[in-house]
Amino acid sequence: MKNNTYKHLQFILFMSLGITVFYSCERGFSDDVQFATFSNTGDIFTDGPIGLGSDFYFPFIGSKATAASFTDENGFESEVAIRIDVPNADDPEGSFAGAILRIDGSGRDLTGFDALTFYAKASQGVVIGEIGFGQDFLENRFQVTRTNLSLSTQWTKYIIPIPDPSRLIEERGMLWYSAGTDDTDGLGYSFFLDEIRFEKLGTIAQPSPAILNGVDAEQTGFVNIPLELSGLTQTFNTASGENITVTATPAYFDFESTDIEVARVSELGVVSVVGLGQATITGSIGNVAAAGSLALDVTGSFDFAPIPPPRDPDDVISVFSDAYANVPVDFFNGFFTDGFQTTEGGAPPIDVNGDAIINYTMLNFVGIGTFEEVPSIDATEMTTLHIDIKVNENIEPDDFITIELLNSVGTNETSGSVTFNASTFITDEWVGLDIPLDDFGLADRSQIGLLFFISDATISDIFVDNIYYFR
Fold it and tell me: Which of 47, 76, 359, 446 reaches 20 to 30 Å from 397, CA-CA?
């Protein structure tokens, strides 16, 4: 014990002396002091991985783990290329190919580059869903995504611009990709990557960032209910005259609020609503103002739907409610393209302080599906369908919402609907609908697979909660 105490006193005296010397110096650091720096090597893969370390390839969950390999048969002006075999859609080892290339160790200083470039080709003409850099399976803070990259059977050079190189002081995520099968036949194919590197092209020009996909949006805000900014992109013009747009994470942006006492924005793009009033959120990248804005009108706290009454579980089939156990749902928005659907939202439901709520905007019609990957609902023994709806806009006399059920037995499909006119709803207030199932006129309701909300765009913005059948 005495020896430990003596050592402890020595340490305190040593630190005290160090602090005294530090504060007695005229300068904090000598001009000869060398601060830690990171590698500024741009090459990632040429005839093999460069400086990535021994453990650098990480597949996505659900991806075929063995999709990637090295090949010496198809390199671009080199001996080795990366070969990626996208599996068939029904491959038991994985239905797609996707992975990241991450540096095993300290990241790289990419501030001297303006783009990730690579050569690519495929065994047939294909479109790669997503490819980019900045994914490291840690924070993915500076992730960049280029979507729908079209590959041919000939080697072609591709460019993924860096939204703001000054942010990439220590980046570990060198490349990532996600590729699925051709939707028309579900068959796999191969594509090849080579000469992967970060470059200073000097021809990446005319930056045009955007938030909310460049739309000046207006929205009602609620105190203590955060919002997440989406539609964050950066567009550049290249030497070929092509405009290349990439999706960028919020960390590339600087966000501003016209009134921080109403709304504030974090570097993660999360808008915290802290007070009543109006505030407009804007963004920029590298002092270039982004197109798009979010104008918030905050008038109070969020009004949640009423809590449903307790019921015997045998008397309820819940599709969407925090009060009961829900049946599995295929989708909350089927995005039916053949019927000119305009409805956005619902996929997934939003989380408002732990309470899940569906928000549909641009509503003309939308379907909630419980029939493709999971069993249809047998509502034979149920008597009533309950739905809570809140209309978030002024209601006009001709407005309506129709609820429709689709029952399918083999090739026999029957549907029934009930329509509620404008007098049923109250602007910005929850209205509970208890609809007798007999009103739908379905002789058989043993396999209900779809529940539709239809407004023909007369009502465009609604909240929905507590969808369940009961008796």
Answer: 359
Beta strand 216-223 with 293-301: parallel, antiparallel or unpaired? Answer: parallel
Which of the four pLDDT bands, split at 50, 70 and 90, describes residue 300? confident
Q: pLDDT tens across 57-97, in order? A: 999 988 999 999 999 887 888 889 999 999 998 899 988 99
pLDDT, tens digit (0-9, with 9 covering 90-100), for 179-205: 998 767 788 999 999 999 999 999 999
339: left (phi over 0), alpha (psi -120 to 50) or beta: alpha
